[in-house]
Amino acid sequence: QEPFVADEYIERLAWRTPGGGSRGGEAFDPKRLLEEFVNHIQELQVMDERIQRKVEKLEQQCQKEAKEFAKKVQELQKSNQVAFQHFQELDEHISYVATKVCHLGDQLEGVNTPRQRAVEAQKLMKYFNEFLDGELKSDVFTNSEKIKEAADIIQKLHLIAQELPFDRFSEVKSKIASKYHDLECQLIQEFTSAQRRGEISRMREVAAVLLHFKGYSHCVDVYIKQCQEGAFLRNDVFEDAAILCQRVNKQVGEIFSNPETVLAKLIQNIFEVKLQGYVKDQLEEHRKSDAEQYLKNLYDLYTRTTNLSSKLMEFNLGTDKQTFLSKLIKSIFISYLENYIEVEIGYLKSRSAMILQRYYDSKNHQKRSIGTGGIQDLKERLRQRTNLPLGPSIDTHGETFLSQEVVVNLLQETKQAFERCHRLSDPSDLPKNAFRIFSMLVDFLCTEHIDYALETGLAGIPSSDSKNANLYFLDVVHQANTIFHLFDKQFNDHLMPLISSSPKLSECLQKKKDIIEQMEVKLDMGIDRTLNCMIGQMKHILAAEQKKTDFKPEDENNVLIQYTNACVKVCGYVRKQVEKIRNSMDGKNVDTVLMELGVRFHRLIYEHLQQYSYSCMGGMLAICDVAEYRKCAKDFKIALVLQLFDTLHALCNLLVVAPDNLKQVCSGEQLANLDKNILHSFVQLRVDYRSARLARHFS
């Protein structure tokens, strides 16, 4: 049995043999085990011989059956060849008979066709004679149930009458034409009645008869007119039109031989009559009085019309249904789309101006004229070069004149304008129109609102020597930063898809870059002047609170304070400004501004310490002050600022170190790379500097 493993088989045989499985124990009997193995091998050999004989017998039987099968296959092949030969003979015989039958049929048709034409011509001549005599006696003309046959006859007689000379056959031509017209009217009336009764089969019969009459188009018009009766009863004319076309599409193929033409004519009638009238009523009401409602209605109606067109694309309307439906839509909206962008820009301009004015009115603020050209340009260039406040400072009372609500409203109006522009603009004009809308956004959001707020904020920054100045420009920075993110998001989400594959893309990107750079210049200028004011406030605190006796106390042994009052107030002020800067900016801008403030803060403290003389205890107090300043500098989280204050702290050690250790301290890790003049300037601040011993040790 599979799987067969020889080792396991031998092991099992050994275990079954008495005395063969103890592996050397007392009961182990090798002779008995050998005897068992020999007997088992003999049994296996006998079994192998028996199986081999069985295999040989089966092989012989298989070879015999294979020969018999091959013989049977050969006999079948011979039978198949005989059958195939008989089939070919039968096929040739059938082809011969078919050729004879076709030939006979052609001969019969050649004889029968002229005969039928002659019989038909004879009938037409008979009917023509009745018109000549002026009395229609044939049953086909008098029996109303045979209107189909009568129509066929009169249609043929009408064609014949066209070829007859008028002078000799004017009367009979007139009678035939009159009968032609009467039958045509009867058929149309019958079609109308059948349609009202809902008899599709009768409508199909009458339409097939009328197909060869001149009034067939009138039959189609009647069908289209009656289809629309009661179809437009709800307020939604577009949904009604879609349902009507869906119903007619299922029916028209059962009635007319050219259903696509009839359905296309129905759709054309709906567009040119129903939809065009509805669109005109909805738009003309607001076209001159309410631009906002006019644009909303135009967008809504155009969208619903194009959606209806998409539904109608499912139907068979002929070869180029896309062009057909596009022309129908264009015929309705062309007079409104030609000047759409002018209306859009006009509305956007007035709406944006109103939003801004309403905001400034709510603040009881009269906008100042920033102006351009002449003196203003000169002032702007001077201010950018010198960073000096030109003109009187304006007290804004903490008002930034930036409103997120105003910005959201302006962006929402522009977003809707972009959506309308995408839908209503011709593809060739889309990038140009989108650029005009973007330009309006730049004018009102960036120039009229943000730039004005920056200008007002700059004018509201006090001079650096002002006392107790309120610094609100960082609030302007914070709000302007938020607005820039919103502005950039709308640029990417709504403008880019409209201009991404046009030359206007580079123009828009450049315009955006220019306006942002212009804003950044003013933001940088305002931040720089704000930092100057911060440093000015620190100077005022130090000048008012720091006393000369702080660092040269009268009683060296009775100093109870850890650091001076001026240090406490300056550190408190600095921490507030650091927190304000972090809240007002984001990203790398925070580190950049904090680095600049930290460097200026360090310079101020460095220059401030240079103004005093220091006793031993005063020097210790100065070190404590600088340690507090350094702790404050850690809040900046700027490595350079902390390094500067570490170095300043090391310099202050020169104020208290023993004269013998001055050279060792100056060659330390933090002071070794400093200019010798800087080290000397700090040593000179010691009250004992002029002693010969100290001068000698430092020289």
From TrEMBL:
Question: Domain Exocyst complex component Sec10-like alpha-helical bundle spans what residues?
Answer: 149-698
UniProt keyword Coiled coil, yes or no: yes
Of the GO CC terms on this record, one is: exocyst
The coiled-coil segments of this chain are 41-79
| Exocyst complex component Sec10 N-terminal domain boundaries | 30-138
Record's keyword annotation contains Coiled coil: yes
User: Which InterPro entries has this protein been placed in?
Assistant: Sec10-like (IPR009976), Sec10_HB (IPR048627), Sec10_N (IPR048625)
Keywords, A to Z, come to: Coiled coil, Exocytosis, Transport
UniProt-listed Pfam families? Sec10_HB (PF07393), Sec10_N (PF20667)
Q: Please name the GO terms of the biological process aspect recorded for this protein, alphabetically.
A: exocytosis; Golgi to plasma membrane transport
- Entry similarity comment: Belongs to the SEC10 family.
- What is this protein called in UniProt? Exocyst complex component 5
Per the UniProt record, the source organism is Sclerurus mexicanus
